[in-house]
Amino acid sequence: MTGKTISEKLLSEKSGRDVRAGDYVEAEVDVMMTHDVTGPLTFEVFEDVTGDDPELVDPDNTVITIDHHAPADGVEAANNHNIVREFADTYGAQQYDVGDGICHQVLVEEGFVSPGDLVIGADSHSTTFGGVGGFGTGVGSTDLGTTLATGELWFRVPETLRFEVEGDLPDGVYAKDLILKFIGDVGFDGCTYKTAEYGGSAVEALPIHERLVLSNMAIEMGGKAGIVPPDERTLDFLEAQTGERPEIPAYTQPDDDADYEAVHTYQAESLSPQVSTPSNPENAVPVDEVVGTEIDQLFVGTCTNGRYEDIRIVADIIEGEQLAPDTRMVVVPASRSVYKQMMNTGVMKTFVDAGAIVQSAGCGSCFGTHQGVLGDGDVCLATANRNFPGREGSMKSEVYLASPATVGASALYGEITDPREVELNRYDDYVLEGVGA
Length: 437
What we know:
- One of its GO terms (biological process) is L-leucine biosynthetic process.
- Its EC number is 4.2.1.33.
- It catalyses: (2R,3S)-3-isopropylmalate = (2S)-2-isopropylmalate.
- The structure is a single chain.
- By secondary structure, the protein is α/β, with parallel strands linked by helices.
- It has helices at about 5-15, 40-50, 75-90, 105-110, 140-150, 175-185, 200-205, 210-215, 230-240, 300-305, 310-320, 335-345, 345-355, 405-415; strands at about 25-30, 30-35, 60-65, 95, 120, 135-140, 150-155, 160-165, 195-200, 225, 260-265, 275, 285, 295-300, 330, 355-360, 380, 400.
- It contains 14 helices and 18 strands.
- The strands form 5 sheets. The chain has a 5-stranded parallel β-sheet with strand order 4-3-2-5-6, with helices on both faces. Strands 16-15-14-17-18 form a 5-stranded parallel β-sheet.
- α6 packs parallel to α8.
């Protein structure tokens, strides 16, 4: 019999059974998460399930953030925020308020997720947690509400697509370019209810902030999860976050003879910066096919590319320069910690001096209702994860997706620009500068 993938091993561990792709399991969940949009319905389900004696099964690992409409952009949002606060206060959940950051970033920064954890969140981009070696996946409010009470949830063990990148990434090519290329190759539904498992020497060389990008956007090809096998670099990152060094469970590493549904192999040297054109992430093309496309707004942030290292790449490009005429830039850090780093290192000043708008930590305009939405006819180049019609505002707007480097270069010219036309930096390790300053 062939070996196992990470998903097969991890769900075997969490269910206490020897399972393979296609099996159904009842698995123990390590961490549960919701936010201000999906939380209220989740709480209703939880209270319905628990009846007269409601109690969270694991309040220390039940995390609720206020991030999508933060700060509140209307009365309904403000009321939802109060529902979140009251629930957390009543049941002892771990609650993060306005400005603390996006759920996915907060869970990683605060040390809630370790290699080998099974994490569910009432948000589709909960696949992000695979970047530190967990099995993260999005679920509906009904499933989450029930799991808050029981600690267990059923899963179908997913098949796995393996994406291997060998060699050294060329200048101008980052994790965002890799994942856009993968999505373009397999299609928006090419990994539906499957795990995207990432490997190869180029992936192994990626710092954690870039591995998180690969896992975050697994859902954009339908992925149930997106996992990078954890290693010593993973542990270095988590120790820098929390002061504690977790272990790497054996079940987080695939067997050499694992049975994959398909293996997609790439040579890093042959890859180029990618841009996804409107209005689907699968519309990925080399940047030179869209160079010269005029843009009205640039959006830097989201759970995909809102970390300090991402934002710093853009700041390095525009430092001492002005945004191109008639071009707007909205910058939204992924967490309060990132916001503080921007202040303490001068990155904030770089953006303000260039004419950009820097906002408090949260989802920003990625959700399409808040902090910089697009109007009719507006064209935006974003570091976000989705560019569906109306995703960032008007149904008559257009959104292109790209790496922070491509967005930074394009800010100087007011049109999509090949990032290899400017001087670029690459951050190979977690950047601690400005932390705690």
